[in-house]
């Protein structure tokens, strides 16, 4: 790799290599920016089995296909199991008419899913990476989200669920690291869900599949193998649009979803230890429509002692070409929290 880097540098025009250097002061991350802590094994859903996140997705899809004979799964490479193995074994179990590949055309995948859902069948579409969902943006926001409204509720595509691997892993660069939920979060007519763990992923995905509105289900791909916990074997559902309070606190409310939930849990522990600050930690789970009642339970805006802070990645259009997209680690979150406390 070092030799390849030297060869590339020698081949570039004079001065270009310097422009590809890391941004001044930009951090270099050499390890995961969080530690996954599994939730306690549930007892209310029967037998559990140790699963990572992609296995819990497979289990949910297996349950859905077994329960609903109209359910079909389709997308790029899903027939052999998908690039992240989330559909492995399902084609052999349920047949090529229910688990099948599509052409490499995201607009076509979603448009096809809308058509299937309109007929009354259950459509589960996979976009291979969330970064490539944008060619289907028009189909999602102008067709799927508005189908019930435009027909006066005579027709709808509510049985459509769109799955997509989401977020940064650490080596995906600009086309395999994005978190595009904000683009869809302002569009009425669809639901957006992002789980934090295998246990949450299965229950939330089954709720999306059975919901009567089109849903986008983003799956944190860094957790596909890094997150392991006990997950019920039988189907179960976790209600949509219900946030979960993971930790109670009196001074600050911290809200996140997906991978970042694990980051703010660590930040909350740091804040208690270093600053003596008691943090409430909330996993939003459903981004649209979000659970305002849980987040604003204490009428927060009538008693706000510091401005609301949004902690996100660096606002640079193109970080160092060989670096992953920067995402807020626990130190950046902690620094934002410290500045709020000292406001």
Automatic annotation (TrEMBL):
The Swiss-Prot or TrEMBL record lists the needed cofactor(s) as: thiamine diphosphate
Task: Read off the SMART domains from this record.
Answer: Transket_pyr
Q: Could you list this entry's UniProt keywords, alphabetically sorted.
A: Oxidoreductase
The enzyme class is oxidoreductase
Domain Transketolase-like pyrimidine-binding: where? Answer: 51-226
Matching entries from Pfam families are given as: Transket_pyr, Transketolase_C
Q: Which InterPro entries match?
A: THDP-binding, Transketo_C/PFOR_II, Transketolase-like_Pyr-bd, Transketolase_C
Q: Which GO terms describe its molecular function?
A: branched-chain 2-oxo acid dehydrogenase activity
What does the record give as EC number?
Answer: 1.2.4.4
Q: Which residues form a coiled coil?
A: none
GO biological-process terms attached to the record:
branched-chain amino acid catabolic process; response to nutrient
Q: Which reaction does it catalyse?
A: N(6)-[(R)-lipoyl]-L-lysyl-[protein] + 3-methyl-2-oxobutanoate + H(+) = N(6)-[(R)-S(8)-2-methylpropanoyldihydrolipoyl]-L-lysyl-[protein] + CO2
Cited PANTHER family:
2-OXOISOVALERATE DEHYDROGENASE SUBUNIT BETA, MITOCHONDRIAL, 2-OXOISOVALERATE DEHYDROGENASE SUBUNIT BETA-RELATED
Q: What is this protein called?
A: 3-methyl-2-oxobutanoate dehydrogenase (2-methylpropanoyl-transferring)
The species is Zonotrichia albicollis
């Amino acid at each position: 790799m070092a030799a390849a880097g030297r060869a590339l540098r020698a081949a570039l025009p004079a001065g270009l290599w310097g422009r590809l250097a890391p941004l001044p002061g930009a951090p270099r991350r050499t390890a995961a920016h969080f530690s996954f802590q599994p939730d306690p094994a549930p007892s209310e859903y029967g037998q559990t089995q140790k699963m990572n996140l992609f296995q819990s997705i497979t289990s949910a899809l297996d349950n859905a296909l077994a329960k609903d004979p109209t359910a079909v799964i389709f997308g790029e490479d899903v027939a052999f199991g998908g690039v992240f193995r989330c559909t492995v074994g399902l084609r052999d179990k349920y047949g090529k008419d229910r688990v099948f590949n599509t052409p490499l055309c995201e607009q076509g995948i979603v448009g096809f899913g809308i058509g299937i859902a309109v007929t009354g069948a259950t459509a589960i579409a996979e976009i291979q990476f969330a970064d490539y969902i944008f060619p289907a943006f028009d189909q999602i926001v102008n067709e799927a989200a508005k189908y019930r409204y435009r027909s006066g509720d005579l027709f709808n595509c509510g049985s459509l669920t769109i799955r997509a691997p989401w977020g940064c892993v650490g080596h995906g660069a600009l086309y395999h690291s994005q978190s595009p939920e904000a683009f869809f979060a302002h569009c009425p007519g669809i639901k957006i869900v992002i789980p934090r763990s295998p246990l949450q992923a299965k229950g939330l995905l089954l709720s999306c599949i059975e919901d009567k509105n089109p849903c986008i289900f983003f799956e944190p791909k860094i957790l596909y193998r890094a997150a392991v916990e006990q997950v019920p074997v039988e189907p179960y559902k976790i209600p949509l649009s219900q946030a979960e309070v993971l930790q109670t606190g009196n001074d600050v409310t911290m809200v996140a979803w997906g991978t970042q939930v694990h980051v703010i849990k660590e930040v909350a522990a740091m804040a208690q230890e270093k600053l003596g600050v008691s943090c409430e930690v909330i996993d939003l789970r459903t981004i649209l429509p979000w659970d305002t009642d849980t987040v604003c339970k204490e009428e927060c805006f009538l008693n706000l002692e510091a401005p609301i802070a949004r902690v996100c990645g660096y606002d640079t259009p193109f970080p160092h070409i060989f670096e992953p997209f920067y995402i807020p680690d626990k130190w950046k979150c902690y620094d934002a929290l410290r500045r709020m406390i000292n406001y």
